[in-house]
Amino acid sequence: MVTAQITLLIYGVLLLVGGVIGYAKAKSPKSLMGGLVGSLLSGVSYWLLRSDPRWGLGLGLATAVLLAIVFGIRYRKTQSFIPAGLLLILSIGVAALLGFSFRLA
């Protein structure tokens, strides 16, 4: 469970930082909102993981899968590795780790 907790914290921070950078560079409110919402969901997942691992892992997994789909669509549309491709790979990795942890829980 410790690995899942650390993963959710790092993922949440990266989503928040990415959203802020996207807003600062491109003046994109969608990036800022997406980063805030993704970070918030990762934080809630982390909090739930401490009290009820199945719920925390489930929410974290759902968030990572949803964001992988979003970033996959963006990557396909823009063909730009930074940021869409990189976040797609990160989201798939987080989803795989959380899915494995969910299976063990």
Automatic annotation (TrEMBL):
Keyword annotations: Membrane, Transmembrane, Transmembrane helix
Pfam families: Tmemb_14
Intracellular or extracellular location(s): Membrane
Residue ranges crossing the lipid bilayer per the database entry: 6-24, 55-73, 80-102
Predominant location category: membrane
Database matches in Gene3D superfamilies: Transmembrane protein 14-like (1.10.10.1740)
Protein name in the entry: TMEM14 family protein
Species the sequence originates in: Thermostichus vulcanus str. 'Rupite'
